[in-house]
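Record type: monomer structure entry
Structure origin: computed from sequence
Chain ID: A
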Amino acid sequence: MSYKIMFRLSVMLTVGLTGFFTSCTDSEKVKREQYYAEGYQLYTSYCSNCHSTDGKGLGDLYPPLNRKDPLPSKELFACIVKNGISEKLVIDGKTYERTMPGNPGLTDLDIAEIATYIYNKWGTDTTYTNIYDVKIGLEKCKQ
């Protein structure tokens, strides 16, 4: 094969792979932005009454979500959002008196979007929460 042909093939391959990886990255970024925007709307509707719009919670009643790690795992997060929690919570040595009712009407996608919003807004996450992580969390809490 001549040098010219090999050079052209390598340029075409480089351009093609660059386009492929860029489009994947862009689609992931778009999905994260969509989940974040939808999550904000859902958070405002379902969560902010107790946890406040700034995620600071409500005194000794409801815990803050604006922490580095809102909850230790997204699986636990999904379980609590869907099914609620009946025990008092102790977070960073502080006891929160109110229990959290479940939101059984929320879909797995709704929960993934809320998690994306919370973990990106106040946590350290920079990606979207995959709906399969929510499904795994909900399956685990059934057991």
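Annotation 1: Helices lie at 3-46, 48-51, 74-83, 108-121, 131-142.
Annotation 2: The mean pLDDT is 86.
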